[in-house]
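sanity check this record:
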Amino acid sequence: MFLCLDAARRVLLTTLILFSLMAGSGNQVSAEEGTWSKHAFSVPRQRAFKVPSPDRKKTVLVQELMLAVTDAGMPVPGIEGYTIVLPAEIAWAPDSKAFVLTANEGGQDEGWYVTVYMLEYDRVNYYDVTAEAAVRFRESVKCLGADEPNFGAIKWLKESKNLLLVAETPARASCSDKNARWGYIVEVPSGKVLSELDAKKLQEDWGDYLGSRIIKKSNR
């Protein structure tokens, strides 16, 4: 009974947030580019935030760190009550069928993770596409303990079918290379690794899309 009431409250709160945001003025993005990707929008603090899809039919909404999606102005179910932690950045796929969130677990020295959200079957479904890439990264960079690499999403490829990710050694991990960084092109939503790129190849092929976080660390 209590679980049902709690779920109902989350749905009601999400609906109220959606209508509050939709009633706001305009539908334009006003935010800095992402620190991982120049093609992402950094989620600002202390205000409502909208990211319209390329086809202008859908919108990602963030208010009070709650994430929601609308399609043609109507709420899309699937992520009611889902919250994020800042800093975070969001990027739509060119075909407007998916968007990706790169977010932090609680501070600049904490872990970064990537979640893909796909609009399918009249709902929003979310996927972790980093599992295979994480295994390959740990095979290339030997670290003490079981620390997961940081992940950031850089660029959508082939519309929403593939995604370029960057993995790096976490700040507090003890690894053979503390500044290791690898790129992975993965299939969405399976996460199958299609291609690996070392730091040099990543910079050569995709440098125009890499955000300030990666560029600064590469120049150390």
Notes: The CA atoms of residues 51 and 60 lie 5 Å apart. Residues 1-28 have pLDDT under 50 and may be disordered. The first strand starts at residue 41 and ends at 42.
